[in-house]
């Protein structure tokens, strides 16, 4: 499967797309999501920033965009835009009854809304690539680049990727998203540079702890020596 732009209204019977709410799971017939539910979800999303702050950030974001993938702020305060997700599947995934690894390493561009959660994005990506395995076996990570360091952080299912994209700006060398399987070994989900960075952090923390320990024992030794000197003075 080739990488590139995809709207989540395509190739899926379980999700639909509108300009107001982007994609949501279809409810059973007769139980479609109500407008009040959308409003409540919008309020939850925008607890981060005021409407004026969002308006300003969307404006600045669009000025910095170089690939025409701009954000759109709607009158109800919900904004829509694009995120790019790197598919890093370490082993073949099962699609429609047969294993495939064609999505490994490819980049997929999703058009989503500020109300969409990490959990919804994971489900949509798996459906896009016809992966039949449970979404609970996968996790969305944000990868941050600061100077020469690379940081990877697993996102909770209730976080909002488009909000993170808005705050970080459009540059993927500052913030990028990665979809990975996380049912494998604890450290196998990380790349070699990330593991090397973890070792540097551990070394630094170890040095700090050792220094603190040495200072504590030095202070304790000093107090003991003072006590001994006082005890041996003639009365």
TrEMBL record:
Gene3D superfamilies in the cross-refs: 1.20.5.110, Phosphatidylinositol 3-kinase Catalytic Subunit, Chain A, domain 1 (3.10.20.90)
SMART domains, per database record: RA
Main localization (coarse): cytoplasm
Coiled coil: 203-230
GO BP, sorted A to Z: signal transduction
Keywords: Acetylation, Coiled coil, Cytoplasm, Cytoskeleton, Microtubule
Subcellular location: Cytoplasm, Cytoskeleton
The protein's name: Ras association domain-containing protein 3
Organism: Bos indicus
Lineage: Eukaryota, Metazoa, Chordata, Craniata, Vertebrata
């Amino acid at each position: 499967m080739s990488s590139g732009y995809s709207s989540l209204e395509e190739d899926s019977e379980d999700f639909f797309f509108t300009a107001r709410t982007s994609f949501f799971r279809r409810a059973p017939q007769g139980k479609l999501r109500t407008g009040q539910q959308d409003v409540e979800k919008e309020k939850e999303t925008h607890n981060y920033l005021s409407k004026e702050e969002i308006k300003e950030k969307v404006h600045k974001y669009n000025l910095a965009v170089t690939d025409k993938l701009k954000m759109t702020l709607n009158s109800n305060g919900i904004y829509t835009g694009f995120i790019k997700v790197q598919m890093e599947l370490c082993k073949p995934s099962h699609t429609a009854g047969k294993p495939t690894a064609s999505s490994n390493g490819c980049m997929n561009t999703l058009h989503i809304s500020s109300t969409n959660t990490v959990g919804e994005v994971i489900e949509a990506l798996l459906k896009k690539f016809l992966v039949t395995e449970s979404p609970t076996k996968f996790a969305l990570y944000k990868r941050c680049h600061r100077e020469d360091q690379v940081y990877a952080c697993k996102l909770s299912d209730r976080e909002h990727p488009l909000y993170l994209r808005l705050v970080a700006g459009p540059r993927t060398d500052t913030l990028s998203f990665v979809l990975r399987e996380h049912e494998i070994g604890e450290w196998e989900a990380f790349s070699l540079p990330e593991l090397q960075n973890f070792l540097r952090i551990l070394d630094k923390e170890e040095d700090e702890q050792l220094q603190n320990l040495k200072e504590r024992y030095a202070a304790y030794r000093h107090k003991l020596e003072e006590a001994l000197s006082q005890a041996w003075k003639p009365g």
